[in-house]
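User: Please check token order:
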Amino acid sequence: MDSKSVDMSTMPLRAGHLHVWFAASLGQVAGAALATLTGIILPLVGIVRTSSLSSLAQGAIASSSLVGIMIGSLLFGRLSDRRGYLLYFRLCPAMILAASLAVVFVDSIAYLPAAMLVMGLGIGGEYSLDSDYISQIMPRRWRLTAVGAAKALSSIGNIAVAAICYFVLRDGSDPHIWNRLMIIISALAALMLLCRLRFTQSPIWLAAHGFQPQAQQAARRLLGDGVTVATPESAAAGHTPWREMFRGENLKKVIFSGVPWACEGIGVYGIGVFLPALIMALGLESAAADPYRHVVESVELTTLVNFVILPGFILGLCFIGRWRPVRMQTWGFVLCAAGLALLLASYRLHWPLWCSIGGFMIFELFLNAGPHLITFIIPTRIYDISERGSGAGIAAAFGKAGAVIGVFFMPQLLKWGGIELALGVTIAVHLVGAVVTAVMGRRIMPPKRG
């Protein structure tokens, strides 16, 4: 190694690192944006149909993208371990772009679930690829922060979509605009695709699979001249058979990374997607008679609540180097449950509006400072290179399985027992997440390794 060479794992940050981080992080933005937009579109679709959507139909449409995410996480995560990342890094945004444009130009509710499913497949691929690619490209000292910051960027999707939709809807009165709102997702997918045209295969993946000359070339193209890549120690382990991912120590890793992500998914999507509907169920908007105005006012409050998501992520990033991930995730779940408990008490005891809004904000703050951030990071900490894509995909699939359950059953819970049952079940699920994190975390990430 000449005097001007730098090792990829110990080099200082360069512009190439920032380009990789931004381009890979856009997948997280797209996922959050689609979840928020789904919650806004559903009540508009109900108005267009002249009769409100049944709770079963709402759950089916909202969960279609999440089913796609669950399948995409498993499929693309596994394929990336075998064939690398580059093809799928371009295929996923292309799928999102094509499906979202289909919704924009085909004004038909009948096609909406199929289009949402395809978009979900692309976003699911992003969830299994993004954290892995970023963790491989970044210098060792920046990996944890960079992966966490990628998840934090997803908050821009929540905030921007809610704000854009509010300003578009507030001066109008036509609910038929619902499909044209999907152009937001199309524009985001196009940006993702353009940013990745100059990507290369992951140098670490290439080195781990014995393509050392190509790894050196890829590293220099991404990060500049003089960058060298060492063969990862875990490369010798080879490819992990699928069945081995669910046995022995790997099974414990699946439970630790997957079950809390499922519990978090129920909160993020069950609450997040139906936030406008929950706000209306709580009676937090005015008593306007026009259903369209009800939607606009609920979107306004949704925007306000979503503004807490980014500070939550920032708070989590501030503590990520000081607190163990297990501790952050456990307490995050507990404080999420406390925020929802405050919201439930405010509703039952008719406390002032600010108490209800405060409960929502406590929930969002600690959800994003804890479980929403840490579940994304944990697979990169517990799996080796040879199985990291599969491990991240399995964990993300668990998360989206929880999201599917939450989104499908949230309208049913509101129908069966109103807002009290919906909040009570969500509180219980978050406490389960705290227990599983605390118990399994001691075994998988003990204090000396956390």
Notes: The longest strand covers residues 6-7.
